[in-house]
Specification:
nine-stranded antiparallel sheet, four-stranded antiparallel sheet, 30% strand
Amino acid sequence: MKKSKLFAAAGIAVCAALVFAACGPKGEEAHTHDWGEWKEVSAPTCEQGGTEKRTCRSDPSHTETRPVGALGHKWSAEWSKDEKGHYHVCENGCGKHEGEAAHAYKEGACTVCGYIHLSHQYEAGVCGVCGKRLYTESGEGSLIYFGEYPQSEVKEEAVTSVLAEKAGDLPTEENAGNWTSYGYYYGGEVTDYMWYIDVELDESRYRGVYFTEERNCKTSSTFLSYQGDNGYLTETVYWFRFEPIEWRVLENKDGTALLMANIILDGGQYYHDIGEIRTQDGGTVYPNNYKESDIRKWLIENFYETAFDGAAKQIIETSTVDNRTGVQDYASEDTQDKVFLLSAVEAENESYGFVTSASANASRQLKATDYAKAQGIQPTKDSEYFSWWLRTPEKQAGGKTAFKVSETGMVRGGVWWMGGGEYVNYVCNGIVPAIRLHL
């Protein structure tokens, strides 16, 4: 019995010696493993695991490996976007996307991620990529809504108070701040007394108007104004909403439409100095020369840039503007313009929807926007209509007058005291732009 126990003990001792000896150099005493740090063998990815290995410091031939779990994707909170759509990217850098979807466009911008589509492909005024419409037509096709301009006055205090805060301090002659001077004439001089500012709020655009002196009806005077009669007073800020412009289709031929604004959009003088007769390129330039007029310059530089964005400009055609037909005296050269005024001949063109005579007629009567009224166009007692400029010079006052359409719809030539046209420095006539649009 004692021998059996001795043999058993000896066997256990031998086995133990063999185990410890397996982790030590040959001929040295056995030891307990002294493991080093785990080191990466293969890196884990978002979707596949990796491996790590550690080595015994006492015997580098002894190693252990273990699996490492996949990282899983870490999706970005912000949208990434390109011309094809929007998506969330994995911030681990694996290159995978999540939540990919096509853009949901409204007026050229994605309502989800804000991506703006810059390369529209228009056909019949509609982008085939994002669906943005450059213009819309009425059911009969006689009206088109295209471009935007300040029109209706905004009176809701909840809106105007926020706009006022965004606009900042009111302008002064010494410091306009965030505002821009219109550069209007006062007593024959360009003076800073009336300003505007454009402000965006909740995806809409507004124009603020402020003036410290009334805009006078002649560039040379300081005593006659209609802003107060129209309900607009000095030292008060008025806000007007940018709205689609309603255009009347005068002609639609070979894919091009001749349009005139169906409402008076603004007001101003034809030319600022009725006494200025200039010599230019060997010729005489009278105040009623349309090519050199203030009103043409304003249409091209101010109205065109304000009313139309880059995409809209692409489908407005450059027109050869006939400044000679029907003009007996003071005709200017023809011009190449994107926007212009109608002529007296065009305002009597039956095919455009007008009567063929110059007599008063409803086909030429136009109302005015609130914004145009704030600019000081002249009201008529007991009438909702206003007069508006034509581009045609007239002959009876030595190059100082031009045709207009009266509030009754009459095409008027002849000097004002004969019930005719208007001195060109008269500020209080309305402005009705015309364009040719590629449909």
